What we know:
The chain is an all-alpha fold.
Amino acid sequence: MTAPATADALGSRPExxxxxxxxxxxxxxxxxxxxxxxxxxxxxxxxxxxxxxxxGGTDAGPRGGKGVRQALALLGAELADAPADSGIPxxxxxxxxxxxxxxxxxxxxxxxxxxxxxxxxxxxGTGPAVLAGDxxxxxxxxxxxxxxxxxxxxxxxxxxxxxxxxxxxxFARRPWTGPEAxxxxxxxxxxxxxxxxxxxxxxxxxxxxxxxxxxTVAALDRAGRHLGVAFQIVDDLLGIWGDPEVTGKPxxxxxREGKKTFPVLTxxxxxxxxxxxxxxxxxxxxxxxxxxxxxxxxxxAALREARRHLAAADAxxxxxxxxxxxxxxxxxLLSALTRRTV
Length: 342
């Protein structure tokens, strides 16, 4: 029961090539403005911020992330029939917020690596990394300071993100079974806040700066939140059954760490629940636990739920007037993200 949770690697399907091209285009458009913003920081902070964004360091070449949120911001502008460039301030803001969240997440989780090299706190120290994260957050808010409505939307997404992170940390303290156990519904609320809020904000901000009406902006925000839940559930699947050659993570890694993920929470309600609860977190029992999660229907339920959220996002996109070409690009990107092929 160790087959990858997703399909093929990037490049094996035409839609994956399209999604990869969308992300590449966004990175090329946003990178100059992003680095111009970082250059306004204190020189030492700017050095750390650039490192956190995947630049700098002694290794060759940038190691930035996929840039999903910045791509969504540009697509949001294009959905409103505006040029992609009009969404660049939104793209810069959400990319800075995302990077800030990763810097602080790595500290909270004690993760020593990020994208194949030392996390910022390991490279520069915990105190400096906290300071750099704070600077990235302040810079993000400042990027939208001339558009109060946009700044308020970003602040609301930040509030949700923090609430989701708090819930995620608290989930680790709760038992696997019994009245205090985490439910699948609580998990989805957490995922919408922690992951979906910023994805929805990216789409909505781009559309807002592109001149879309409030109804369209709100619908795109909700679509991004559905995408965030689907994205997180697929990440859970990869954390148990993903191919290490594709994910960069060890197979069954989340089970060994005892993470409360959607497939596991669903499986615990089934007939194998008591046995599964005893195995979770045991380093030498991860393979048996993965088999039990699958046999109890946790893997299948997670796939169904991810597809349900993707369908909900698609329906919201259908419900508002938008550019057909941009809508097609967005659908290509959403499909690839939820199969995690980019």
